[in-house]
Amino acid sequence: MRAHLHTGWRHIPAEARGMAAALGNFDGVHLGHAHLLHTLHTARPDLGLAVVTFEPHPRELFRPQDPPFRLTLAEERLAALSALGVRHVFQIPFDAAFSAMTAERFVTDVLHEGLGLRHLACGADFAFGHRRGGNAAFLAERAEELGIGMTTVPALADEGGPYSSTRIRRLLQDGYPERAAEELGRPWAIRGVVQHGDKRGRLLGFPTANVPLGRHLEPARGVYAVTVRLPDGRTWPGVANIGRRPTIDDGQESRLEVHLLDFEGDLYGQTLSVALHTLLREERRFEGLDALKAQIAEDAATARSYLDRLVRAGAFPQA
């Protein structure tokens, strides 16, 4: 069941108040986040499960010069949280005015009075309020004074350390989507609306859907075996290129171009979710279009073989 999205903290309906809520950015909604939510639900199974998060990510406000870094945008994050049993997502607009709110006001005005929360959970490193003036200890102290329960959850970790969005970003940038998927609990996906491109893929015999990366993190450039979730819910195998197309040398920004294997239909204007499964090869320049066309055919065959093995293993349904 899809969680109810509330894009603010004022005028919350009565049925959404009185929740147990986890606090954080939840970029990626990885296994560490799932652990936080599971611990919260175990502590207060009698209360509805909720999340308090922010949009945009605070880093986007404070460091706008940084390259895009998001693992999940708002719509994907909502879907992932819904899959974990979250009933309400309180998505607070993070702007300059909100960033100036003190830690004290955040607890009293937002969490207590605005949202009417009855129990809170966060990681031990959670910081909030103007200039990160509040931490988990401060939150626990103020929550107790206000009659709100509080659970501080130790980070889920493995031999490499705590699970984190930063660690997953690094895996994707280094070209290891399989390892990123292990920490996310699902393949990492880029979601976007198909735009008109230059039709070069069609001329090469491999028509592609052009999906802008937008605010998503740019993973390692190259060719990937992918699956594509269509608007009608079907999952379709494909091969995708992420990069700047050095053979064509069009000087454009990096883009995602995905060819759906054996697919016929018009996808322009539709929203696709493209999940990366494995990096087949790094981006490179070819001597000409004939060499590029031959390589694309080889990439498509390799992707088909790889994805067929996943289908036989039951990793995703056949389209």
Q: What is the gist of this entry?
A:
This protein is α/β, with parallel strands linked by helices and 319 residues long.
Can you walk through the features of this model?
This protein has 319 residues and is an alpha/beta fold. It has 2 domains: 158 residues, 3-Layer(aba) Sandwich (Rossmann fold); 126 residues, Elongation Factor Tu (Ef-tu), domain 3, CATH 2.40.30.30. 31% of the residues lie in helices and 25% in strands. It is built from 10 helices and 16 strands. Strands 1-4-3-2-5-8 form a 6-stranded parallel beta sheet, sandwiched between helices. Strand 13 and strand 14 form a beta hairpin. Helix 7 runs antiparallel to helix 8. The model has no long low-confidence stretch (mean pLDDT 93). It is an enzyme of class 2 (transferase).
Write the topology of this structure:
Elements: E1 4-6, E2 20-23, H1 31-43, E3 49-55, H2 58-62, H3 74-83, E4 88-93, H4 96-99, H5 103-114, E5 119-123, E6 127-128, E7 134-135, H6 136-145, E8 149-153, E9 157-158, E10 161-162, H7 165-173, H8 177-184, E11 189-193, H9 200-203, E12 209-211, E13 222-229, E14 235-243, E15 255-260, E16 271-282, H10 289-312
Parallel strand pairs: 1-4, 2-3, 2-5, 3-4, 5-8
Antiparallel strand pairs: 6-7, 9-10, 11-16, 12-15, 13-14, 13-16, 14-15
